[in-house]
Amino acid sequence: MKLTQGLTTIVITSITCILTGTISKQPLLRGLGEIAALAAISRKIIVKQHEIDANNQKQLTVLTKENTCLQAQLSDAQYELNKLDKKVKIQNTCQRLYLSKIDKLQHQQKVMMGNIAQLQHKLSNKTPPNSENFRQISQKSSMKSLSDTQTSVTRVSNGSIHFRQKYSNSK
Prior knowledge:
Number of domains: 1
Order of helices and strands: HHHEE
Shape: rod-shaped
Strand order of the largest sheet: 1-2
Helix content: over 70%
Number of strands: 2
Largest sheet: 2 strands, antiparallel
Distance between the termini: 106 Å
Radius of gyration: 49 Å
Strand content: 5-15%
């Protein structure tokens, strides 16, 4: 309030000096009034600038605090992201290993089925065709191979592997 009153007083005084100097044709008095007016205007500008600077400093302090908090949150988020990335890599590796084992087992199963077929073929060649045993064995093996069909299904979802064998009876 005091500064505003002082500025008002200086402005009124300067206007008075300018008018008196102009009317009485005294350039020194008029110059003094102009200088006082310029001083009042510059003082007002300086005061406003200081207020703006103080406001900017407060905002800068608030923004700096917010930035520090956000940096901490970002650091925490990056740490969590790195942990999750490691877990995903481990899970992918486990899935690849499981699938590799399943493929290996399926291959072994195919090899065994081929060996069984070869052994049945050799057995059928060694047994006389008119024999009653040959007919019973060949009927059982043909019925078994036709009636029991095994199908394996492998499914990967949500980081876990489901392996299921289906048996279907087709007659």
